[in-house]
UniProtKB/TrEMBL annotation:
Record flagged with keyword Transferase: yes
Name under which the protein is recorded: non-specific serine/threonine protein kinase
Enzyme class: transferase
InterPro entries according to UniProt: Kinase-like_dom_sf, Prot_kinase_dom, Ser/Thr_kinase_AS
Biological process annotations from GO: mitotic G2 DNA damage checkpoint signaling
GO molecular function: ATP binding; histone H3T11 kinase activity
SUPFAM superfamilies in the record: Protein kinase-like (PK-like)
Gene3D superfamilies: Transferase(Phosphotransferase) domain 1
Cited SMART domains: S_TKc (SM00220)
Catalytic reaction list: L-threonyl-[protein] + ATP = O-phospho-L-threonyl-[protein] + ADP + H(+); L-seryl-[protein] + ATP = O-phospho-L-seryl-[protein] + ADP + H(+)
EC id: 2.7.11.1
Length: 295
């Protein structure tokens, strides 16, 4: 069944497909009503063999509470045959990966601006006993005023039960380049959740500043990772970075989860607290792209 047909079944008009989304096929749709001001939303179609219900419930729970503006809002879900359709907030800007690729890399000022938003969003997610487990630039979305929002909760899970007891999570999930060493280690069957998300924020910061990933996978078989572990970074992308950023990232990207900075530690770090520069205000956005106005 095409996205056009699926949208019709649930009372929406298909507009166009979007070429992004790791765990689903996203399209732009609009409710089939006479109201011309009906907002455009994203419809993401996922196969029901995936853990779709948890993804929906987690993102709906986080976004409907209106406590944090850094979560992509989930509106509703429909099920048709063997697929489920999520209706979510449409952010007219690109995802962070596309922004980085368009600009090759971001300024230190802009990277800090986005990183702070990521940490605030992640702090909120963790406060609800949830671990995202796939933090990377392609899963971070920007609205018309450069407000960063975390999306794609397809791998998320609870790391703590309602009584406050820790739940260790299964490993070997997520994108290898952004995953903490323990996630893809053959020695660990279960891992603590929050430290793995913190590690991934360090990778996001590195990619923003250099336009490239530091390594393919953080393990002892990877030469680039071992160079980082041994402080041998002179001829790599690390040499582009400010010394304070390198020191900060070394603590965020600590190999051992117990030695890694926590979110509270990060918020107390001088690099995080001190304003590197001023980010100019973004003008009020045009909420409808010109090419969609006549559709």
């Amino acid at each position: 069944m095409t996205s056009y047909e699926t949208a019709q079944i649930v009372g929406y008009i298909w507009i166009m497909n979007l070429h992004r989304g790791g765990f689903g096929v996203p399209s732009l749709v609009k409710k089939d009503t006479a109201n011309e001001k009906e907002p455009i939303v994203v419809m993401k179609t996922v196969n029901k063999v995936n853990n779709y219900m948890k993804e929906y419930e987690v993102q709906k729970f986080l976004s409907e509470r209106k406590e944090c503006k850094h979560i992509v809002e989930m509106f509703e879900m429909h099920e048709v045959g063997n697929v489920a359709m999520f209706l979510m907030e449409y952010l007219i800007q690109e995802d962070l990966q596309q922004r980085i690729e368009a600009q090759v890399s971001l300024s230190l000022t802009k990277a800090q601006y986005f990183y702070r938003q990521l940490i605030r969003g992640l702090e909120f997610i963790h406060s609800k006993r949830i671990c995202h487990r796939d933090i990377k630039p392609a899963n971070l979305f920007l609205d018309g005023r450069d407000c960063l929002k975390i999306g794609d909760f397809g791998l998320s899970d609870y790391y703590m039960d309602a009584q406050g007891n820790q739940i260790l999570l299964r490993n070997r999930v997520g994108s290898q380049f952004a995953s903490a060493p323990e996630v893809w280690s053959r020695n660990n069957l279960r891992v603590a959740g929050p430290p793995t998300d913190v590690w991934s924020t360090g990778i996001v910061l590195f990619v923003m500043l250099t336009g490239t990933v530091p390594w393919d996978c953080a393990n002892f078989q990877c030469t680039r990772y071992m160079n980082f572990m041994n402080f041998n970074i002179g001829s790599s992308a690390w040499s582009q970075l400010d010394g304070k950023v390198i020191l900060f990232l070394r603590d965020v990207l600590s190999h051992t989860p117990q030695d890694r900075l926590t979110i509270q530690d990060i918020k107390a770090e001088p690099w995080y607290m001190e304003d590197i520069g001023r980010v100019l205000p973004i003008p009020e956005p045009v909420w409808l792209r010109p090419e969609l106005e006549d559709m």
